[in-house]
């Protein structure tokens, strides 16, 4: 089993930047997809970005393209989400997740989840 721990959340002003980290205990296989999701209060969980662990291909939601960057450090078993030009609508709890089959970026298909880290963007 894979255990995931997110960190790096906090409070930032509109237009600011933040970098989130996701440290995994246990092996992330090269065929897996590692994703970032977020959930605002009273809203459903939303896909943000993902990376194919082995080959490094990335995919982003339209709302964050050009502002967020997902990356990895395979030696440290860590994924990152660099967030730039943050907006109030980016506020929410951000979760790291792993989809072991490498076939989808839909939240319901992910197998392992972290506990989340809060990101608040003030207006």
Give a verbal description of the structure.
With 123 residues, the chain is an all-beta fold. It has strands at 3-7, 10-13, 18-25, 33-39, 46-52, 58-60, 68-73, 78-83, 92-99, 112-113, 117-122. The strands form two sheets. Strands 2, 4, 5, 6, 9, 10 and 11 form a seven-stranded mixed β-sheet that branches. Strand 7 (68-73) and strand 8 (78-83) form a beta hairpin. It is globular and about 40 Å long. The mean pLDDT is 95.
> In terms of quaternary structure, what is this?
single chain
Number of strands: 11
The global form is globular
**Helix-strand topology string:** EEEEEEEEEEE
Quick check: average pLDDT? Answer: 95
User: What Rg, in angstroms, do the CA atoms define?
Assistant: 13 Å
Strand content range? over 45%
The residue ranges in which pLDDT falls below 50 over 5 or more consecutive positions are none
Helix fraction? under 10%
* Helix count from the secondary structure assignment: 0
Largest beta-sheet characterization: 7 strands, mixed
Structural class designation: mainly beta
User: CA-to-CA gap between the ends?
Assistant: 40 Å
């Amino acid at each position: 089993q894979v255990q995931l721990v997110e960190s790096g959340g906090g409070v930032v002003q509109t237009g600011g930047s933040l970098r989130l980290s996701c440290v995994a205990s246990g092996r992330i296989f090269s065929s897996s997809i590692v994703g970032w999701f977020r959930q605002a209060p009273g809203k459903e969980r939303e896909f943000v970005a993902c990376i194919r662990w082995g080959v490094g291909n990335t995919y982003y939601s339209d709302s964050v393209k050009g502002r967020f960057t997902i990356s990895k450090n395979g030696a440290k078993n860590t994924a990152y989400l660099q967030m730039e030009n943050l907006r109030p609508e980016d506020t929410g709890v951000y979760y790291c997740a792993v989809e072991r089959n490498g076939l989808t970026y839909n939240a319901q298909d992910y197998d392992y989840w972290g506990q989340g880290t809060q990101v608040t963007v003030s207006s």
